Amino acid sequence: MTIFIEMNSEARHTTEYADTLTREQRTRAREIMAGQFAELIARSPAENLYWQESTTDLMDVAHEVYMTEMLVDGQGRPCGFGPIVRRACAVLHVPTPANPYSMAFNARNRKGVRQMSMFSRFCWLMYFKGIRQPFNGMVKRVGEG
After folding, report:
1. How far apart are CA 96 and CA 94, in angstroms?
2. What share of the chain in percent tops pLDDT 90?
C-alpha cells in the first residue's frame, strides 16, 4: 500500500463556508459584521459584557472589521487596528494582547487547527442558521439582576 502525503501545500484542506457564498453575499456579510461589531464595542464596559470565544477569535474579528475601513474616528478617518483592539478588549473584558497583529495573522492561517475563520463562522450563522445577530451568542452579560 502506498500513501501519498502532500507536503507544504498551499491549498486549504477544509473549505471556508464564506468561500461558498457569492461576492455580493460576502460583501454584505462584512458590512453587517462591521456594523454589529461597531455597535458592540460602542457599549460601555460597565455593562459587564464578556467575550465567550477565544482572544484569537476576537483579534480575527477586529482585524476583519479594521480591513473594511467602515469604523471611523472623530475626524472621519478609518480607525486603526490598535484602537479597535483596545476598545474591544475594554468593552468585552479581555486582556489586551501584547501583539494583536500577530494574533490576527495566526488566526488567518490557523495552522494545524480545524477551525474556520471568524468571518466564515459569522457567515454560516447568518446565512445557514438564519441568526440575525451572530455576536449575541459570542458575548455574555455577567452580573444581571
Report:
1. 6
2. 72
Q: Which long-range contacts (CB under 8 A, 24 or more apart) does 26-29 make?
A: 26/123, 29/119, 29/122, 29/123, 29/126, 29/127
CA atoms of 35 and 69, how far apart (whole Å): 11
**Residues near 70 by Cβ (< 8 Å), separated by ≥ 6?**
31, 34, 35, 38, 78
Compare 114 and 106 and report the one with higher pLDDT: 106
Torsion of CA 12, 80, 70, 28, to 10 degrees: 10
Q: Is the pTM of this model over 0.90?
A: no
- Identify which of 132, 107, 123, 145 has the alpha carbon closest to the alpha carbon of residue 19: 123
